[in-house]
Amino acid sequence: MSSVTDVKDKSPLANLGDSGAYQKLLAFASLIALLIGFSIASPNFMQTSNMIAILQATSVNGVLAVAATLVIITGGIDLSVGTLMTFCAVIAGVALTYLGLPLLFGVIAAIAAGAFCGLCSGTFVAKMKIPPFIATLGMMLILKGLSLVISGTRPIYFNDTPGFDQISRGSLIGEVIPALPIPNGVLILFLVAISASYILSRTVLGRYTFALGSNEEAVRLSGVNTDAWKMRIYALAGGICGIGGILIASRLNSAQPALGLGYELEAIAAVVIGGTSLSGGRGTILGTLIGALIMAVLTNGLRVLSVAQEWQTVVTGAIIILAVYADMVRRKKSG
Amino acid sequence: MLTRRFILGALSAAALSGPASMAAAADELYIPLVSKGFQHQFWQAVKSGAEQAADEFGVRITFEGPDNETMVDRQIDMLAAALANKPVAIGFAALDSQAAIPLLRQANEAGIPVIAFDSGVDSDIPMSTATTDNAAAAGMAADKMAELIGGKGKVAVVAHDQTSRTGIDRRDGFVNRIEANYPDIEVVTVQYGQGDHLKSIEVTKAILTANPDLNGIFGTNEGSAIGVVNGVQELGTKDLVIIGYDSGKAQTDAIRNGLMAGAITQNPVGIGYETVKAAVMASKGEAVPALIDTGFYYYDASNIDDPKVAAVLYD
What we know:
Distance between the termini of chain B: 50 Å
CATH class of chain A: Mainly Alpha
Order of helices and strands of chain B: HEHEHEHEEHEHEHEHEHEHEEH
Strand content of chain B: 15-25%
Shape of chain B: elongated
Helix content of chain B: 40-55%
Largest sheet of chain B: 6 strands, parallel
CATH topology of the largest domain in chain B: Rossmann fold
Distance between the termini of chain A: 19 Å
Order of helices and strands of chain A: HHHHHHHEHHHHHEHHH
Helix content of chain A: over 70%
Radius of gyration of chain B: 22 Å
Oligomer: heterodimer
Strand content of chain A: under 5%
Strand order of the largest sheet of chain A: 1-2
Largest interface: A-B, 59 and 47 residues
Number of domains of chain B: 2
Number of helices of chain A: 15
C-alpha cells in the first residue's frame, strides 16, 4: 500500500520511513522556535501555569483537528466538526442533566451521537455522492440548529452531575505529581491522538483511509467496497468529535448550544499546518497535533506579549500561509 | 531545509518580540480587561473609556474579547493568558460565569481583585460590577414605544440573542413593561438576529411580511437596530416606529433623518472608565462599591446633540 500512499514522495529517505517525517520535524522545529521566541520576549510566557493553559487551549481544537485529519486524508473535508462537537455536548447535557442518567451514559450518548452524525455525513458523501464540502456544510447547519432546538436555546449546566467537570478540568497527573497539574483534557487529547495514529498506521481502516485519498478509483477497481470504508471513517471522525463535545462541556461545566461555528476552520488550519495535504492521501496525526499546538502557542504568546488583538489575527493568518508554503517548497525539492 | 524553516520560525518570533518588549518594559501597574467582544463599535467605546482611565491613573491596560459572543472557551483562554502576566487587577465581562469560575478562583487565591463589567459575573468573587441596568433601559424603550404609537397596536422585538444576560434582560425588560402597563399593545413576536446586521434585516423583513399592520419594532442592540432600519427601508414600509439600542454612525444617522424614532444608549465609555478606575482602587486595597451603575439615556432627534448625550454616543 505504500506505493499508493507515497506516490508524490520519491526521495529515498521518504520511502525509507514515514512520508510525513520531514514535515513533522519542520513543524516541530517551528513550534520550538515559537516557544523560544516568546520566552525571550516575555518573562511571563514560560511558566508552568501558562504552559498548562496552552495545553488546555489545545485540547478541544486538537481533538477536532484529529477528526478532521482522518476525513481530509480520504480527500474529503469535514466542516461540521465544530457544531457536531456542540451537538454532542448538548446530547450529554440532555442525558445527564435533563434525564439524570449516570455519568458514563452521558459520555457514551455523546460519543454515539457523534458517530451516528458522522455516519450520516459519510452516507451523504459515499452513497449519495454529495461532495464532502456540501454534505458537511449541510450537517454543520443542521447540527447548529438541532443543538439550539434540543437545548431550548439555553446553556445546559452539569451542576447535578458531580465529577463531570473533572473529566476535563481535573488532573490525574497532578494528584501524582503536584507540581505538574496537567488537566485530564490534555491526557484525553493525547489518548485520542495515539489511538487515531494507531488506526491510521496499523489497521486496514487506516490503510484504506490513505488509499481512498490517493486514488479512490483504483481502490474501487481492485474490488474494495470503498463506500463502506468511507462511511466508517466519517463515523470514526464523528465519534472523535463526540469526545471533543465531552471535553468542552466538561471544561465549561455546561453545554453551550450557540458555540461551535468557526471551530471547524481552526481545526482545518491545525491540520494543514501539520502537513496534511488538503488534496488527500497524505498526512499524520502527530503533524496535526503539532499544528494545533502551534496555533495555541501563537495565540497565547501574542496575548501574553499584549500584542493588539487586531494584529494577533493578522499574524495567525500569515503563519498559516507561511507554514503551508514552506511545506510546498520542501515537497517540490524532494519531488 | 530544516534550517530554512527554522530560520523562518525564528524570524517570525523575533519580529513579534519587537513591539512586545516595549510593551512589557516598564514596571507599571498592569490591568487586563477581558471583554465579551472586541470588533463592534460598542466594545471599542468601552476600550476607549478604559484607555482614558489608564492614562489618568498611569496604569497599563490591554483589552481583548472573542470574535463573537458564543465563544465561551476562547474567552476562558484569554483570561488564562491575562493571569499569566501577573496583573494587579482584572476587568472581566463573562460570556458564561460558571465556565470562568475555576480561573476566577485562581485569581482570587493569587490576591488579584476582579472587577466585572457590562453583563457582569454571576459569582461573589468580583469586588465590583460596572454595568447598565438593561432591564430598566429596555423598559424605558417600551414606554417610549407606547407613547409614540398612541398606547395601542402591535409591536415586535428583534433581539440579538436568547442566551446572554443582556439579550434576556433587554427582551424581558421591554416585553414585561408592555404587558404590565399597556394592555392595548400586543407584542406579536420576538425574533433573533444574533446582532448581525444582515441576519437582522432578514428577520425584520419576515416579521413585516407576516404582520403588515405592525406599528413598531424594538431592536435590542446596535446590529439588531440597524438591521431593522435596513429591513424597513428595503421593504419601503412607512409609519413604523423603530426604537434602537446603543449608537454607532448608522443608527445616529437613522435618528437624524427620521427613519428611527430614537434609541437607548448605554454609557460604554463610562463602563470602560469605571472598570479601570475600580480596578486601580481595588489593587491599592481601597474600598470599591459593589455595584457601579454606569447609566443610560433615551435619545432622539431632539436631544442627540445635547452634550450630555453626545458624550456617550459613538460612531
